[in-house]
From TrEMBL:
This is Lipocalin family protein. It comes from Deinococcus petrolearius. The keyword Signal applies. Keywords: Signal. It comes from the Bacteria. Residues 44-191 form the AttH domain. The keyword Iron-sulfur does not apply. Residues 1-25 form the signal peptide. Pfam families: CrtC, Lipocalin_9.
Length: 344
């Protein structure tokens, strides 16, 4: 949809804004149910499905965003697909405002991209080259303490299905490749806007002992760390807070856009010592539909957990900040600051 122009569209836009309920304020005392993954009335909301599928030579990151912009909803989606055999990264973006949401079972649809759930709790991801069935191996969890962020940089409720078995096909270079492995599903919503005063470094990891590890380092735009958050979902599916967590960045990669991303990390906590490294450096995404630059790609590592050797595989995400105007960034400032061409 083109931006509204003229007196009549402007009045219509003002009327619609007045009729749309204000986004629900974040309340840290109202932690959501782990199983309620449906859409909320929030300033910012997203669903991610991320997967490193080494046996298939693939990694992918699908994201669906729902943002309340000046009282009206704006939707954006993107899919980053890495062909590890061909050493290629491709980015597809979805700007359709034709969306449908449902819950119990979950339905997230933007144009012809969709993440749906059946009555038995199985998910189906159909987005561009992805045609995947996702079977949960663990129940959904709310990561302790139930949200990420702080009052200073705003907060997001945080739910995940940390381990799902993926099967199906992925089209690579015009050919359908059989794909299988383990993936991670995230759902977050609240007051926070990426790039608007807040950046983060995140990992979603599957460990060889059957547990799953979420690591989250939240930074202000000036780089000051305001939160380091971790949780471990044990093999039985119970989420435990990882206390006294330290995430130390190591090797830094300079991207073609001139941004710097730490791609080697040392992670420590009581009973945990893990070294992590990017599988492939060239994973920067310049997402014009959200005006954000970040690195998203497969990582692997090794170390110890409670004295036993473990290996780790999964995905990392490091927010690099706002797109510049010459990169196609929105005019007007940080976050979702001004309506892009297809915004209401």
């Amino acid at each position: 949809m083109r931006p509204l122009r003229g007196a009549v569209p402007l009045l219509l836009g003002l009327c619609l804004s007045a009729c749309v309920p204000a986004p629900q304020a974040f309340d840290p005392a109202q932690i959501p149910s782990a199983t309620d993954l449906g859409a909320k009335n929030a300033a910012t909301e997203w669903w991610y499905v991320s997967g490193y599928l080494p046996d298939s030579g693939l990694a992918f990151h699908w994201a669906q965003f729902k943002v309340n912009f000046r009282g009206l909803p704006y939707h954006a989606g993107h899919l980053a697909l890495t062909d590890l055999r061909g050493d290629q990264l491709s980015l597809s973006e979805n700007s359709s405002q034709d969306v449908k949401f449902g819950a119990a079972p979950l339905r997230v649809q933007q144009g012809d991209w969709s993440l749906t759930e059946d009555a038995g709790g199985r998910y189906y991801l159909r987005a561009g080259p992805l045609d995947l069935d996702l079977t949960p191996l663990k129940a959904p969890v709310v990561h302790p303490p139930g949200y990420s962020g702080t009052a200073e940089v705003s907060r997001l409720y945080y739910q995940s299905v940390t381990r799902l078995a993926a099967s199906g096909t992925v089209r690579v270079g015009g050919q359908a490749r059989q794909a299988s492995g383990v993936v991670w599903l995230d759902h977050q919503w609240g007051d926070q806007q990426a790039g608007r005063g807040v950046l983060w470094d995140w990992f979603g990891l599957h460990l060889s002992d059957g547990s799953d590890l979420m690591l989250y380092r939240v930074r202000r735009a000036d780089g000051q760390i305001v939160q380091v958050l971790g949780s471990r979902v044990d093999p039985a599916g119970v989420a435990h807070a990882v206390t006294d967590l330290v995430m130390e960045p190591g090797r830094v990669w300079l991207s073609p856009s001139g941004r710097r991303y730490a791609l080697d990390w040392q992670v420590r906590a009581p009973g945990l010592d893990l070294r992590l490294a990017a599988v492939r450096d060239e994973q920067e995404l310049l997402t014009k539909t959200t005006s954000i630059a970040y690195w998203e790609g497969p990582v692997r590592g090794e170390g110890t957990l409670n004295g036993a050797a473990v290996s780790a595989e999964g995905m990392g995400e490091f927010v690099g900040g706002l797109l510049r105007r010459d990169e196609g960034g929105f005019v007007g400032g940080p976050g979702f600051p001004a309506a892009p061409e297809n915004a209401p």
